[in-house]
Each structure stands twice: as structure tokens, then as C-alpha cells.
Amino acid sequence: MSLRGLKTLLWFLCGAGLTVILLRIIHGPGSVVALTDIIPWGLWKGGGVVALVPIGGAGFTLAAMVYIFHWKRYQVLARGAVLLGLVCYSSVAAGLTFDIGIWWRIVYPLFYWQFHSTLFEIAWCIMLYLGVLAVEFSHAIVEKFNMPRLRSIIEKTSIVFVIAGISLSTLHQSSLGTMFLATPYRLHPLWHTDWLPGFFLLTSIGLGCLTISWLTLVVFRLYKVEQPMDAISGLGRIAAVVLGFYGLLKFVEILIAGEGALLLTLDWNVANFWFEILLSALIPVALLAFPRFRQSATAMFWIASTAIVGMSLNRVNVAGLATLDATSATYFPIWPEWAVTLGILSFAGLVYLFCVERFEVFSAIDEQAVKRVYASEQVDHADWKTLFFRIPHAESRLYSAVFVLAMGLALGCVPDGSVFGEQPQKTPVTGSRVVEVAKVENPQGPGSQFMIGAQALAEHATGHTDVFVIDANRQAEFVLFDHESHIDGLVAQGADCSTCHHMNKPYDKATGCHQCHADMYLETDIFNHDLHQKKLGNNAGCAKCHVDDSLPKVRKNTTACAECHPGMRQNDAVGDPQKRNLAPGYMDAMHGLCIGCHQERKDTLAEKNEDFARCTQCHRDTPGFDSPAWNDLR
Amino acid sequence: MEHWLEWARGPLFRASFAIMILGLLRVLVLQAISLFGLIRQAKRNQRKIPYAVVAKASLRWLIPVGKLFERRAVFSLTSVLFHICIIVVPILLGAHILLWERGIGLSWPAISMQLADILTLGAIVTGLALFVIRLSVMANRAISRAQDYVWPLLIVLPFLSGYLAMHPAINPFSYEASMLIHVLSANLIFLLLPFSKLSHMALFPATQLVSELGWFLKPDSAQKVMTTLHKENEAI
Question: With an 8 Å Cβ cutoff, are B15 and A539 in contact?
Fold first, then answer.
């Protein structure tokens, strides 16, 4: 891939990621992730934070080799490794910021000190180490801008920062493992061990050697400069020793813990473990044992790629994938999550390339080399593309266009809930059922009790009757509604069916409540525009409802239903005619109708007492409904 | 068709409108970068730029009717009317404002439906007139590219389909079909706008500034231009 092609791709991913990040800031992470309360850590934490920390481990590993042990062979890679650490840790900070619920509280560890929290230690270590890395990399910046006094100060104090950086790294790399010691019942036994902090530190050293090798190979290739194979093959040998030691310890630990038999069982988790250990340690170590492969740029690229994928899988496993089994939950990151993680990584990549071009990160990639690689990729003036991406600033024109397109595309592709915030979920309702119950008269006064099922055999029963079971959302809480006695009571008071059946469907006499109040909590639009359009003869019929051409064609400006369907509305006292066929939620409709009537009857009918207008009059045998709080709420 | 319409005025509109806004910002930023580059270069060459003169000249050209009737009055007038119509109607149409209010909760005063109807017809007529003028005048044809013919027609399309959708009595197509054409053509314009000559929508003041500035960037540039145009003796 050419440098321009790669940068175009990175800018595209940045654009898509930025859109999702903005939506996440506006509406919260829930609007763009597939995470749940059971699986609260997903790709952002596993991939964008936990897996990225060991990749940034190259910084302290190379700093130790070059500045402490004075292994001059690796000098050429030292600054590149420090920059890798810097962009990795910055990405970690950015990823973590957008992952936590209230994103701007990312700075809270500065002000609220929780000494017992592992995360508190990690947060401080990473913050301090980020500062240390910035100071370490500032060498390149002061060099560029020719600030001799500042340069001499930085150079004189640099050893302090190098030592601080190494100490902080050993602390947080290991305590990232410590954190997962808190998950013994969640994490699969093949991963969960007291040795986890040690493993995390050890692998970060081994992986650090390979990540800086991988990056150097790629960057030198992009800028068409000969790759420093001497240093890279040396790092390969160190990585082989460290990762080999890790592999050995891993199996020793499993055997000591008595989990050896697990390794041979047929299970998704075990397959995942073997896949991970093969990629992260066994295959790279086996291949790195051959000097022939260590000397070859192609072989080193693939070996390092394998190890990076394998070790990232290890961190993702510990942070989430190997816990799915215990939680019996499923989770796969949706594309907006990928967009954010890849977007942050892409931005990090662009910053890295920017620094490589502008500062002396690798001495082999100087101004001449950068000029050479861009000269060979100049925009062809006769090309149609110059219509959009002409010089001057051809590169900026191309990348900004791609960035803008990606932002727009992402905004178009995310679901409505991500753009406008999560909407309330629909709860469709079902009609009531008729059931035969035993009726037990109240010996103390008015009213009666119903008993269903086995209870109906109770010897107290004074008769049997049919009642409606009203449990429209089928949530095992119901009201038994004695339809017959309501008819009798209302007729005796001079009322009729329309008292409750206030609106009927055409040709219907007593339309059931759930037919219009079709959602438990949300309003339902009962007007069928499509049907009316067809019935009234399409375009010719529009003017029958949208009478006034000078007003927008919205609900409030149209002919009222009753003008064409005079028999539809039976009782104007119920509901709000101004609502124009927006039927309230089922629960509101029921409460609105029943409670008003009961309160009125409580006062007007002599045989009714206070209880007649209480919740428990209808909601019987439902826990909590007999408390006074419910009646107050009403 | 219902689903296509939902998609066109939901996700597709979101994407294309965002691309339009961000794309216009992009060309403005790029223009600003070029402009500052030019000024820096002029300063390096010890050129003095009379900013007051430049600003005055740019502002004068921003008023479209300033030199309206000097040359080709019909064309100029048609063009000005066309621009007024296509800017006012989409922004101030009541039905559009209702959609904005429903989507993001923002609303602003609307023009009356009658005025909107008149302006829409105005946009259609002047758009077609611009197309005909471009086609019929030899000098215009000589400097026109294919896209220059397509643009007036493409811009007329959403106005025509929108008008038909709002006037079912004279609409030979179904409401959904007219609406789909309306939304799709508008989205296409939004998408292409920041990457085509239509970006003058945002760049217009800036390009005017650049061309006014151009007179002062190189020594004798004004004289050279006048010589090329054989207008040595006229006032600059």
C-alpha cells in the first residue's frame, strides 16, 4: 500500500470514528454500543485500552535497553519506540475517556484518591508515564526548533525521566493484570491465576520488542528506506527468549493449579486458549529460533504480526472474551464500536507518521527521504481527480474530502437511536381473556372477591361468574374485571356501553380497548393514512382532508375524523378530541377511565366507601399495591 | 416506495446534509489557507496590500444588483431571481421547518404557502431560462462544460417535484413518487455541492476577495491584465 493510500484510509477511519464519538458524547455510550449491564466491558476497553498498553510497552523496553544498558545496537529504534509508547498511551487515554459513562470524569482520579483501588494506581501510573513519554520525546522537538538551552536541560535530566518511565511501566503493566484478579468467578480458570500481574509485565516486554520491530518494518517500507535488520533481528532474539519463558511459565502455572486436564477437553474456551497461546507465544518463538527468519524483513513482519494479534487476543480474552461463558451472555461489538477504536488508532497512526516526517524519529528517514516519497506520488495534472484535489495543498484536499465523506457516511449509517437518542421501547398489548372464577361475597359489607384456578373450589364460593383478565402486557400482574356487573351497575345508573366504549371502529359496536390503545405506555396513532389515501382515490382525494392549501399538511390542519365518521365517537366526555386520533398508552387509558369513575361513584353512591377508589380495589393480591404510598402516588 | 422514502429522508438526508455542511467548511478552510499563503508570499516580495480598497471592492461585488443592467440585463436579472428563489424556499418553507422541529427541535418563522408557491414557480422558470440562455448564446456555449448544463436542470428537479407533491390536483404522479424524486434529487445536490462549482455558495465572498487581492500580489499585475485585455487606457 502506498503512503497516500494508507493515509487516505486512516483519515477515512478517523472521520467515521469522530462522528460516533460526537454522538456518544451527546447521547451517552448506550446509544452506540452493544454492551449490557452484564457485559459492560467490550471492544473499547478490551481492544482500545487493555490490549494497547502492552503494545506501548515498546517505549520502556527500548528505553531500558538503550539508555540504561547502553546496547547501542538498538539506538536507531529508541526514539521510534518512545513515540510508539506516546501515541499508544494517548490512544489508551482517549479510548478510556469515551468508554467511561460520564466521560469528563476521566480526570477524577486526580481529585478523588481511592488508595484501595487498582484502577486508581493504573490511572496515576498512566498519567505520569504519559508525561514522562512526552518529556522523553521532547528531545526530537527541541532539536527541530533549535532551542539549545532547553535542549541541554532536557538532556541533563533525561536519565531521571528514563528511570521514572521504566519504574512506572513495570508498575502499571503488572497492575493491569492485578485488576483482573478481582474476577475469579467470571474469568475462565485457564486465564485466571495469581500470576497474572507477572504474565502481563513479562509479555509486555516480549511484545514491546516485536511491536517496535513491526512498526519500523512498516514505516521504513512506506518511506522506501532500507530497514535496519541488524537491530530488528536482535530484538527478535530477545522476544524469543522472553515469550518462550512466558509460554513455559504459563503451562507450568496451569499444571501447578491442577488445571492440566482442562487443556485436553473439547470446549470453546479451551480452543480459544490454544489459538491464543499458539499465536502469542508458541508460533513466534518457534519461528524466531531460526536466524534465517530473524534476518528476513518479510518473515519478521509476519512473525511480529502473529504475536501482536495473539497477545492482543490474550488481553481481550482476559478483559472480556473469556468471561462470556461464566456470564452466559453474548456480545459482539457493533460497527460504531469498531469505528471508534479504529478511528482512535488511525489518528494515532497519522500522528506517528506526522512526527516521523517532521521530526528526526528515525535518522534514516530524513527530509530528503520524505521529499522523495512524495515526489514519486505527485498528483497528475491531466487526471480528472485534479478537478477536486488540485494543487496547491493536494494532500490536504484529498484527506479532508475523505474525512468529510466518512463523517457524513457514518452519520447516515448509524441507527436513528444513536442520532436522536434512544427512544422508549414499544410494549405491544394483547386483549383481555375471559375466565370463569368463583365469587366470594364480602360478609362485612359491599364488594366481592374472585378466585381463579384451584382456589375456585374454595368452599366459601357463593357462585361462579365470567370475568376479564386484564393483563395486556402479559407480565403476570393482572386485574380481574367483572364486565357483567359493570354493565348492570351502569345501566342501573342510566348509563350505557358508550361510557367506556367511547369510540368504535367502523361497523363495530363495542371495540376492545387494546385495539386502539395498542401500546402499554406509548401513544398509538390510530389513523391509517395509506388506507384513506387509497379509498379516496389517491391525489384526487387529498383535498378532502387537507382542505386549506395554504397550511402545511399536518394533523392539526386537517379535517376532523368525526366530520366523515359521525358515528365513530360515542362519548365526547372521554379522551381529548384535540389529540386527533393519538390514543394514549393502554395503562393511561385504563387508569384514566376506571379511576375517574370510581372516585366519582365513591362520593355519589351510598353503598361505596373510601376503599372503592383505592388501588387495591382492582389490583388485588399484587405485592405492594396495598401500601398507602400507591394511593398517594395516584 | 414508502420504505425508500423513509430511507431517503432519514439516513440518506442525514449523511448528505452533513457532508454538505462539513464539505463547505472544508472548502472555506482550504480557501483561507490558500489566501494566507498568498498574502504571506506578497509580504515576502515587499508588496503593500491596500486592505481597505480590497475590502470595499469585494463588498461592492457582493451586492448582486450593483452592475446588473450594465451588460446582459436579462441574464443578470434571471440569475439574481433564480438565486433568491432557490435560497429562500428551501430554508423558509413551513413544511421544511416542521421537519426540522420534529427532528432536532429547532424552528424559525416561515413564509406563507402562497409566497412559497410563487417563489417555487419562480425557481423553476428562471432555472429553465438559465438553461435555455446558456444553450442559445454562442459565447456561453463556448465556455460551458457538460456539468454547467446539468446543474440548472438538476436544481429545478426538487422544486418541480416538491411543487407537484404539494399540489395533488395537478400532479400526474403519486404523492410518494413525487416526494421520493424530491428528496433524492435534493440529497444528490447536497452531496455534490461542496465538491463542485456549487461550493460558491460558501466560497463566494472569499473568491471575490481573492480576485480583488490578486491585483496587488505581483508587481504590475494590474497593468499586465489590462494589456492582455487591450484596455491599457481605461481606469482600473
Answer: no
